[in-house]
Amino acid sequence: MGLRGGVWASCSVPCPGGGPVPQSRPTSPLASPQETLTGKYGEDTKLIYELQDQGGELLALRYDLTVPFARYLAMNKITNMKRYHVAKVYRRDNPATTRGRYREFYQCDFDIAGQFDPMIPDAECLKIVHEILSDLQLGDFIIKVNDRRILNGVFAVCGIPESKFITMCSTVDKLDKMPWEEVRSEMVGEKGLSPEAADHIGEYVQLHGGLDLIEQLLQDPKLSQNKLAKEGLGDMKLLFEYLTLFGITGKISFDLSLARGLDYYTGVIFEAVLLQPENDHVEEPVSVGSVAGGGRYDGLVGMFDPKGRKVPCVGVSIGIERIFSILEQRVKASGEKVRTTETQVLVATPQKHLLAARLKLISELWDAGIKAEILYKKDPKLLKQLQYCEDTGIPLAAIIGEQELTDGVVKLRDVATREEVDIPREKLVDEIRRRLEP
Amino acid sequence: MGLRGGVWASCSVPCPGGGPVPQSRPTSPLASPQETLTGKYGEDTKLIYELQDQGGELLALRYDLTVPFARYLAMNKITNMKRYHVAKVYRRDNPATTRGRYREFYQCDFDIAGQFDPMIPDAECLKIVHEILSDLQLGDFIIKVNDRRILNGVFAVCGIPESKFITMCSTVDKLDKMPWEEVRSEMVGEKGLSPEAADHIGEYVQLHGGLDLIEQLLQDPKLSQNKLAKEGLGDMKLLFEYLTLFGITGKISFDLSLARGLDYYTGVIFEAVLLQPENDHVEEPVSVGSVAGGGRYDGLVGMFDPKGRKVPCVGVSIGIERIFSILEQRVKASGEKVRTTETQVLVATPQKHLLAARLKLISELWDAGIKAEILYKKDPKLLKQLQYCEDTGIPLAAIIGEQELTDGVVKLRDVATREEVDIPREKLVDEIRRRLEP
């Protein structure tokens, strides 16, 4: 499974969601000073949950895991770290539960912080996204990549002033949800661009491809004269080289329409989208769109350091809520029953007045590490106990009645086949383990 | 390990902290309407973090996992559930980090909800606490048990009016931190009891023992006339019977001074405390005190149900932060190095211009599920790469140079012994797996 696979699992710090880590504690706090969060999310700042002033402290709930991670690095003077983090974030948004959008939801982030040679960590982030989406078998997907420096270069050669670069990014970013014509009118109407400048931008941002496109743009008479764009295109070429070595370029598209809404990206940006199968047999198709996204943010840590010391970072956020809503719908559609417990054995009795025998036996099983349950009734009916096994998918029942107590055995029942065998009590644990072997 | 052992692992719903569960989502939200939380925590209500009103909603951060669990059951009309939950809670308290007290900290709860025969789920909660504390080898411990009904019966026979029962509980609860004389003066001074009533209470609440004490109190001329106390003592006897079958009475103490501060308990209450070893060699002894606590709260779910329908519950909260602070200090004292990564292999090169070879090899290892890392540098020195393995405890290095590329082999180095063997590339994954077998 991807979430524990090779590249992902080599990440240095385990997820705090799996329990606090004894040695290092990379969990950045859920509540941060309000000014920590404001000014990092552009137009989305209005979605931040703020806490009441209760004694001179203005705090806010985290909006994502990236800004708290950057603050954590700065506050602890860490210049080098690779970690993943699965935890909840909060947005005052309108929930859309069918699409996996909630006000409180899990994010699942992977980030590499540190001063390294270009594009090596960036390529690893994309490899991780590829590994997770492949292993989860979510269907066909594509990972769009772009670079903020290329986009800014495009804006520059189209005559846009630098002060408008960030707002232009949010407008271009809408190209995955609306056609170019609408994006163009926003540029001209709301953002005050000349129709010619908008059209010029349109020529670039509608391009997508692979190494060919990178080479073509490196030859582009205007773009190749722009320092930022040239740097971005050079790194993009390097990135494709590394992704070729990783064997994943088949799923990667260099897409100039990808802009990502957030303010803090400074280099490579990327976003993974699921592709709807052409022949869609699912009755209620899930419109999920983007399932992972991220990029390079070299300036964010410096914003939290008193001396402005920078720590370059690149990271990715996996949309686990969206992925789970797809998996849920798929399970629902398949009609398969999913077990909600891991219980291996139900300890049952066929007659009354045998609660003590059940408690003694289950205690033995628990002490041996067997996952066992009993019904919390003094004298449950045997039928009810067996029905419980079938309802919850417990594979074995260990039945102990008066006869079994006298004989020193336990009747082990296979719930599926209904076969029953008397097992000497001292061999019960071994027999259960043997039956449960994969 | 206890946290995954027999009794604990048989709990039906896995911890949301380990990732959201596809089928059921037992995660109660972090933010609740403020009125949900007020009036549940007695004097501790002042420690609740409240959110700013941002559009007519008054919300608060959860103070524990119990009240949100009760609200979850009521809102979803669930009458029957066993689950564990590891997640963060929030308290506007004064942090004391050395004692493992934070404003934001993990709680780890296990609860059984439903109408069952008396004391069977209650005994299971105690068995779980016993299993966890034993398996973690935290040293000697004792689990104190009592029953709110016994305490209330004591108050009643000592002439205390029912309206004062809850506040009397918080006073008695201080007996683990201060001597009886001080508790007595709080009763007389602050709570307005007569010295005789206080002394009478003192005769009872300083008692502790086992089955003998239960029998003795069942014969107590006054207490045995009190309906509540009689019920509580009857159930306590049953509980000890079940705990004997579970083989754990050696660590259980029926202790009448145990009161637990919270308002919502209605029956059995319990608290586990670590005992300091007599011969203490640790330089900085950790004063941790209570590491788990809980009890029965049969009225809480009904408070959230519009029709007041009750769902009896019993549960326990494991103080994982405190347990971790003990484990951390122990590791520190032992001087042992704890690995912070699970990386199995570092892919290294001895010469320059071999980044492509490293990337190709690591990609093969990742794809085979091997946990591998590289240094994010184009041309790192071999010494630096091997030093990194030693510093971080990576056991193997897969070294690929020009000669190895020509020969189709990889030099596999055991970092500890410094032994190196050439392995044919196609056999590398198997050889790594073989070496890493336990």
Automatic annotation (TrEMBL), chains A, B:
Entry protein name: histidine--tRNA ligase
Assigned GO CC terms: cytosol; mitochondrion
Binding-site positions, L-histidine: D64, L65, T66, R91, Q107, D111, R260, Y264, Y265
Catalysis: reaction(s): tRNA(His) + L-histidine + ATP = L-histidyl-tRNA(His) + AMP + diphosphate + H(+)
Stated family: Belongs to the class-II aminoacyl-tRNA synthetase family.
Top-level taxon of the source organism: Eukaryota
Record keywords, A-Z: Aminoacyl-tRNA synthetase, ATP-binding, Ligase, Nucleotide-binding, Protein biosynthesis
SUPFAM superfamilies found in the cross-reference section: Class II aaRS ABD-related (SSF52954), Class II aaRS and biotin synthetases (SSF55681)
Region Disordered: start-end pairs: 18-37
GO molecular function, one term: histidine-tRNA ligase activity
GO BP terms, alphabetized: histidyl-tRNA aminoacylation; mitochondrial translation
Enzyme Commission number, as recorded: 6.1.1.21
Biased amino acid composition, Polar residues: 24-37
Native organism: Buteo japonicus
Residues in Aminoacyl-transfer RNA synthetases class-II family profile domain copies: 84-350
Pfam family for this entry, one: HGTP_anticodon
